[in-house]
């Protein structure tokens, strides 16, 4: 039991000062596609729908996405905070989560509900909501980040379970996504694999925690923020890089 308890703080370490959640390191990086070089300049957001600091920064990410929509291609990469879950749903884990959710609320102002901690059982598995977002990337790419934020709201504010397929029904209805097709994708091995490829790509980029924001061109990857940041700070950093020789 002691080994499992340590896993709580080791593999989902959310820091109140830096505003970052470190991921579960038990994921291989996969292989790098040598043909993946691009001439596009991308603003990359690496996050997880069940990362509390990712919820905290969500409005700030939306601001910079909108601000640079005409000059940078915005891309979401799903990081894989706790794929597979498995932490014991006990008082220790609940206290750990509540403490960090409180920190995020105080710093970002984002709303949280704590009704989740009244549940007799909950598996904090971050793979299913990541898979859902990955599906929407193919079904309705222009709404991927909006869907991501709706998943966050439904989990953190409404405390519904992202492991339940019906969790996604009202979100799909909101965006006009055919729920029957979504279910087929959600239950498929294909999208489990594609979601894992996102997790691997985040490792290949050198990301060690979420949220992370990067600027990528054909030759370089520039860190914009690591952990919680404001849109003003990220904008300043982006402008410095984009106007430098």
Automatic annotation (TrEMBL):
InterPro entries: DSBA-like_thioredoxin_dom, Thioredoxin-like_sf. Transmembrane segments: none annotated. CDD domains: DsbA_FrnE_like (cd03025). Pfam families: DSBA. Residues 48-218 form the DSBA-like thioredoxin domain. This is DsbA family protein. It comes from Splendidivirga corallicola.
């Amino acid at each position: 039991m002691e080994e499992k308890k340590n896993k709580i703080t080791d593999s989902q370490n959310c820091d109140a000062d830096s505003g970052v959640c470190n991921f579960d390191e038990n994921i291989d990086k996969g292989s790098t596609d040598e043909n993946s070089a691009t001439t596009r300049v991308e603003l990359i957001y690496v996050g997880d729908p069940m990362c509390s600091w990712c919820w905290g920064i969500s409005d700030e990410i939306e601001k910079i996405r909108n601000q640079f929509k005409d000059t940078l291609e915005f891309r979401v990469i799903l990081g894989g905070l706790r794929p597979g879950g498995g932490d014991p749903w006990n008082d220790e884990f609940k206290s750990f989560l509540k403490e960090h959710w409180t920190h995020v609320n105080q710093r970002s102002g984002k709303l949280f509900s704590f009704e989740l901690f009244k549940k007799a059982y909950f598996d904090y598995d971050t793979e299913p909501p990541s898979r859902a977002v990955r599906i929407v990337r193919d079904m309705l790419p222009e709404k991927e980040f909006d869907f991501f934020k709706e998943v966050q709201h439904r989990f953190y504010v409404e405390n519904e379970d992202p492991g339940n397929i019906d969790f996604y029904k009202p979100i799909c209805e909101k965006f006009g996504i055919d729920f029957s097709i979504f279910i087929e994708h959600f239950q498929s091995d294909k999208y489990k694999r594609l979601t894992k490829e996102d997790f691997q790509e985040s490792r290949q980029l050198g990301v060690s925690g979420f949220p992370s924001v990067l600027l990528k061109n054909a030759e370089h990857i520039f860190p914009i923020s690591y952990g919680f940041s404001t849109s003003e700070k990220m904008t300043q950093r982006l402008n410095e890089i984009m106007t430098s020789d």
